[in-house]
Specification:
It is built from 10 helices and 11 strands. It is an alpha+beta fold. The strands form 3 sheets. A 5-stranded mixed beta sheet has the order 2-6-3-5-4. Strands 8-9-11-10 form a 4-stranded antiparallel beta sheet. It has a two-stranded antiparallel sheet with strand order 1-7.
Length: 299
């Protein structure tokens, strides 16, 4: 059933505008049999054609840029275009999501499936990505946040167009909304099919640290990651996190970072970040350093 979805507007004196279409749920909309389907839907959306033209071709032919991403909480499509193209870009997105996955060929489906599986292999070769995946699994052992957003070969490889189309209708198209920001005059209303059940984010259990884990890379480096589970960010908690971040990265204009990474070569890289989720947030520190610097790093 087609329905007008909420459109949030923010105007600023700019020659261009940004359009974002949000589908709440992301990987949190999946179960054991559909792990990775949300991310797969994101990929497949770029295969949908309207009069032989897909999202990328449409936006780029008007001098704009587009992207998409899947998180634990949402599948998001975005485009940046000159203001004069805002209305027609919104209408094109509307047609894309009205069409859904109905006109994707078996060839396109299998090709994109292979792209996703190759992406899995690429991430498996990244030590820090492996550590982050392990961190999430340990912090959220019985919650969907602990699963890989990209999914598993066991679920993606045997999937069919019918499987993924059904998932998209039931779990992704349930509660979408849009954001338009920039110098546009007026955003058109967006009508797309809305169906299925909205994802309900359930409060997760308290985290009890279970393991210490590390990996040694073939380049004789150690990769380190640590995470602290926190309530959802906001107010005082957000201020405290910003203060910690400022101390670590801003001390004497970055002296601490420069000293540890460049001058003394204790680290090859060092980062501190906060990750916000619908249901909680994380404070994460990660680093890579030469193996012969382990004692100095610990000190």
């Amino acid at each position: 059933m087609k329905k007008s979805i909420p459109v949030l507007e923010y105007r600023k004196e700019l020659p261009y505008s940004k359009i974002l279409i949000y589908f709440p749920g992301g990987s949190s909309a999946e179960n054991e049999k559909t792990q990775g389907f949300a991310h797969f839907c994101e990929h497949l959306a770029f295969k949908i054609k309207i009069d032989g033209i897909g999202i990328a071709e449409f936006v780029e032919s008007r001098g704009g840029g587009c992207n998409a991403y899947t998180s634990n909480d949402a599948v998001v499509f975005e485009a940046t275009v000159l203001n004069k193209f805002v209305k027609e870009t919104i209408k094109f997105f509307e047609k894309i999501f009205c069409e859904g996955l109905a006109n994707i060929s078996q060839t396109d489906f299998e090709e994109e499936k292979q792209v996703v599986i190759e992406e899995m292999a690429m991430y498996e070769d990244e030590p820090m990505e492996n550590l982050f995946t392990t961190l999430m699994y340990n912090i959220f052992p019985s919650h969907k946040y602990g699963r890989k957003i990209i999914g598993l070969r066991e679920t993606i490889f045997p999937s069919t167009i019918q499987d993924v189309t059904s998932f998209m209708k039931k779990r992704i198209m349930a509660n979408p909304f849009a954001v338009v920001a920039g110098g546009f005059e007026k955003a058109e209303k967006i009508e797309i099919p809305v169906s299925g059940e909205p994802v309900i984010f359930k409060t997760t259990e308290n985290w009890i640290p279970q393991k210490r884990f590390e990996t040694i890379h073939s380049q004789n480096k150690n990769y380190f990651i640590a995470g602290w589970r926190l309530p959802s960010q906001g107010g005082k908690m957000e201020s405290v996190l910003r203060m910690i971040y400022t101390i670590i990265y801003g001390m004497d204009g970055g002296r601490l970072y420069n000293e540890l990474v460049y001058d003394n070569a204790v680290f090859d890289n060092l980062s501190v970040n906060t990750l916000g989720f619908m249901d909680s947030s994380l404070f994460v520190q990660s680093a890579a350093f030469p193996c012969n610097m382990v004692k100095k790093r610990i000190d």
